[in-house]
Amino acid sequence: MKQSSRTQAAILVLFFLSGAAGLIYEVVWQRMLVLVFGNTTLATATIIAAFMGGLALGSFWFGRLADRYSRPLRLYAFLEVGIGVFAVLFPFILAGVTSIYISISQSLPTTPLLLNLTRFVLCFLVLLIPSFLMGGTLPVISKVFVTQFEKLSLRVGSLYGSNTLGGAIGAFAAGFLLISWLGARETAYVAVALNILIAGLAFGLSLVLVPDSPSSPRRRGGQRRETDRQAYPKHISTLILVVYGLSGFCALAYEVLWTRLLVFFLGNTTYAFTTMLTTFLLGLALGSLVFARFLDRGRHLLTTLAIVEILIGLFAILSVWQFGGLRDMILGLYGPSWYAATGIRYIGAILVMLFPTLLFGIAFPLVNKIYVNNLASLGHGIGNLYSANTVGAVIGSFAAGFMLIPMMGITRSIMLIASINLVLGAVVWFSGFKARDRVKWGTAGAAVVLVAAVVATVAAPSIQLQRLSPGQELLYYGEGSSATVVVGLYRNGMKELRVNGVYEVQTDDHSLRTFHMLGHLPLLLHENPQKALVVAFGTGITSGAVAEHPLQEIDAVEISAEVIEANAYFLRESQEVLDDPRFNLVIDDGRSYLLRTEGRYDVITSDSTHPIAGDSWILYTREFYELCREKLNPDGIMAQWLPLQGLAPVDYKRILKTFQSVFPDTTLWLANEYTLIIGSKGGLTIDYSRLAQRFQNKSIKDDLLQFGVSDPVALLSGFIMGKEAIAAYTQGVSINTDNHPFVQFAESRKEPGTYNRILSELTRLRESVVPLLTNMGDEASTIESRLAR
User: Fold this and answer.
1) pLDDT tens-digit readout, 357-414
2) What confidence tens digit (pLDDT) does each residue in 158-169 have?
3) How many Å apart are CA 121 and CA 711, to the nearest integer?
4) Which of 23, 234, 704, 720 has its CA 20 to 30 A from that of 475?
5) Quick one: CA torsion of 25, 31, 34, 40, rounded to 10 degrees?
6) What is the pTM of this model?
């Protein structure tokens, strides 16, 4: 096709916008998968695997079609339309997949591996459809854009770089701006609009370009046909295909592993995935755009590729060995505002990932220059390379998220992957030797590199990503796919549990009182509880309090197996609840368990972590509360822990209003420095006589007495406000939903002093619990007098 410089620029712009749309989808769909899996690591591994699997199939199939298609730009337009149509249907498809998952999981043993594999397979198959179409875009548009073989690396690198740069900007916009402003589904519609715009422009552009015969190499005007360069031997082409496939394995394994690594100075926020993704893509884009122009003039391409692979491995090893000092440096630079802190996080991500991702970016145009022999088979060649790379990427992302981290830990996994890069570099290096030297030097060199790789992997320290506070003794350290868990002991005997760097539990009196009240309060308010569920087992303190009541059955859900292991250091605080014959512990995400369980409960207690910590936001949305209400018996009660610290007043009110939108009869209670929300499905009245009778239970009475709760009046004195006052207090704020997850972005709004502001306002609005009390008998006046103090 005859092209002007303006046409070439237009094609680059189209592919830039296509990259932006694709990564908007990836960020939005990854967040939707967090709702399915309950944690970012498995959602990230799944969406990366699905995207890469589809890209591999799409590039392979459409690469061959492009070589036969006379109007490749029109084919490109159809691909963009297909992606947009699927995106419109995706929320409905995901709902159907969820229904299928519920049906399958109810017939499976409740083992984490089977449940995660079921979710992975279902989500993978669904996301394979749009990613298959996305995979066809590069080989198809390359057939239009690459018209001179001697500029193959420049043109392919420019396409890849512009697409990847667009992806970085799209990911940033979606993760930091659009979802917060518009909502998740509406953000996907922005990408749909981009797809339709791209398709229209591509179709229009195809009308003004003159097609060549699809079976012959392109000519420029009346010049002679371009001469294809002499091809590398077949065994070298095969080697390059294998090497680039394994390089894809390494690249996506790093992406999953670095997501877990970087979380420790990305602050374990909901922005971690976006920060990692945009940094990774920027490195790929810069590497391809900046260095591609030099590769067409290069003569020692195999040597260059070998050096690239070896340097990737060395930089990956460096990211492990020097991470501890880097983390301290980054944390020491944190700015006073959220925006400054976010900028510093990007600096940290760039320091860890920039150089290896630059090298990965160089590799794509480089291997194309080695592997592709002529323009007539351009689509076929690029399709082969891209599909091999993405098949490797599928396996790498799955292996890192589901296998390597649980089996080896993060740092040893990175060392293993880095060793693969070193071996790849060595193999490519020695493949360039003459046959008579290859056996002698190649075997010796490969053996040295292999031994060094094995030694480095085995000898690598399991660097403890979570540092202890001064004076703390380490009791436990565990790394899993979703969490790095640490238990520390202070000199005064207080223990502390941290998950991914966030303080979750401390065994000081204030915290213990809150956990015990969260277990006792809803059970004491219920008329006749027989079965209870605790969402988020944690250290088991709340579950231990629940077990003090004469229930028939107690279920608890915990997503992290490492947190369960850490319970061994909280046996006294949890009252050894795991040994209670009535107690049943399930390792799963709370939402997933509620979706698939057929059980019904009298009381559900949600002891989830802080709303801005990692993926906890999914346990503070209207959809989660609706799940809980559905699993409650007609007179059931739900309790939710709600902190005053770390939330802006507007976000505190949003959670409270969201809870009340599902449980209209909501009451708010104070437990030391925290608040508890109690929602009644059938309407709340408190029978004082029954409450006093339950205080006669020795186990309950003794457990509460250690925290100063000696009788029913002391318990009831924690009441703050009822449903009418809560409705007035939260008037005018938005409800937090899966689609509009305002609380997911609450970190950007928090500021010093919000704890005192919220507490002061609640104190001013505090009202009496007396209107809810019944059956006080002759003690009514005394009870009212004591509660009025």
Assistant:
1) 889 888 878 887 788 766 666 666 777 887 788 788 888 888 888 788 888 888 888 8
2) 887 899 899 989
3) 53
4) 704
5) 100
6) 0.83
Residue 510 CA to residue 492 CA, distance in Å, equals 15
d(CA 736, CA 447): 57
Question: Is the separation of the CB atoms in 260 and 410 below 8 Å?
Answer: yes
Contact of 532 with 523, CB cutoff 8 Å = yes
Strand pairing category for 531-535 and 601-606 = parallel
Half-sphere exposure (CA, 13 Å, Cβ side) for 343? 8
The CA distance from 380 to 389, in Å, is 14
Q: Name the residue type at position 460.
A: A
- Angstrom distance (rounded) from CA 640 to CA 535: 10
Cα separation, 674 vs 716, whole angstroms: 15
The length of the chain in residues reads 789
What is the 3 state secondary structure string of 414-479? HHHHHHHHHHHHHHHHHHCCCHHHHHHHHHHHHHHHHHHHHHHHHHCCCCCCCCCCCCCEEEEEEE
Catalytic residues: 607
Question: String of b and e for 442-477 (b: at least 16 CB within 10 Å)?
Answer: beebeeebeeebeebbeebeebebbbbeeebeebbb
User: CB of 496 within 8 A of CB of 505?
Assistant: yes
Helical pair 72-105 and 5-37, crossing angle rounded to 10 deg? 0
State the residue for tokens 């496939």: 245
Residues 6+ away with beta carbon under 8 Å from 439:
none
Task: Pull the structure tokens for residue 387.
Answer: 């599909």
3-state secondary structure of 716: helix
